[in-house]
Amino acid sequence: MADLSIQVIVFLLLFARVGAVTMALPVFTEDGVPMQVRLLIAIGLTLGLYGMLRDRVAAPDGNGALIAALVIELVIGLGIGLLVRILFSAAAMAGSLVSLQIGLSSVLVPDAALGGQAPLLSRFVTVAVLVACMAMGVHHLWIAAIVHSYDQFPVGTLPPAADLLRVAVGTTGRAMALAVNLAAPLLVYAILFNTALGLAARMTPSLQVFFVAQPLNMLLGLTLFAVTFGTALTGFCYAVTAYMNRELL
């Protein structure tokens, strides 16, 4: 019975970190995934990793130490999951930039992940990058990051706040740079199109620029977006892979 109690405690400690990571990852926080499904995924992933990680977890002595260890595991798990989620916010930012350049920023759809409404293309890009990353096996790196975290942060060891803040700030900057890179073709297109539009308005003052430019801007912008989107998805997956290998593995 004593050995069974120790195994249960070890499982709870593993579940605290693995479950926190699972609940914070961008794929499993989508509003289309019910909470019960997220819980089952977290339990299944914990069971799958139990045989590999149980030797790295020591059951603490006393209820106070157990509660403190569970809180620390939750903090570490949420930290790992939120870092990945911050990086994936680059997709939403890139979609918003693209929507702004081609005149679709007023077309809004509900987005629970952002806590309100988001441009239609922003939501589309977010879902597309999640599907692409799952198809290219990037989610395997998430599992590897969970396993590797037990080498960097053993159970009951809280990571230094300064290091965690540094990584969070660096990840935010990386996400913003990645968003600009993903939307770069449309940014260049918008500069050229608006410059040409301004010259046309100066040369032909009687031309109703808005009525001519808006449909043409949407047509050309969506065409360029469709042509470059596949390459942007692949580049995003490679960028996420490089980030995971550098920061979390």
Structure explained in plain terms:
The chain is mostly helical. The protein has one domain (2-248). Helix content is 78%, strand content 3%. It contains eight helices and two strands, in the order H-H-H-E-E-H-H-H-H-H. It has a two-stranded antiparallel ribbon with strand order 1-2. Strand 1 (108-111) and strand 2 (116-119) form a beta hairpin. Helix 3 packs parallel to helix 6. It is elongated and about 85 Å long.
Question: What key phrases describe this protein's structure?
Answer:
249 residues; mainly alpha; 8 helices
H/E topology pattern: HHHEEHHHHH
Structural class: mainly alpha
Structure annotation, total helices: 8
What's the Cα radius of gyration? Answer: 23 Å
**How would you characterize the largest beta sheet?**
2 strands, antiparallel
Strand order of the largest sheet: 1-2
Which parts are unreliable, with pLDDT below 50 for 5 consecutive residues or more? Answer: none
Distance between the termini: 37 Å
Number of strands: 2
Strand content: under 5%
- The percent of residues in helical segments reads over 70%
Mean pLDDT: 83
Shape field? elongated
> How many domains make up the coordinates?
1
SSE topology:
Blueprint: H1 2-24, H2 35-53, H3 63-102, E1 108-111, E2 116-119, H4 120-135, H5 138-152, H6 161-182, H7 184-203, H8 209-248
Helix pairs in contact: 1-2, 1-3, 3-4, 3-6, 3-7, 3-8, 4-8, 5-8, 6-8, 7-8
Task: Provide a concise account of the structure shown.
This protein is mainly alpha-helical.
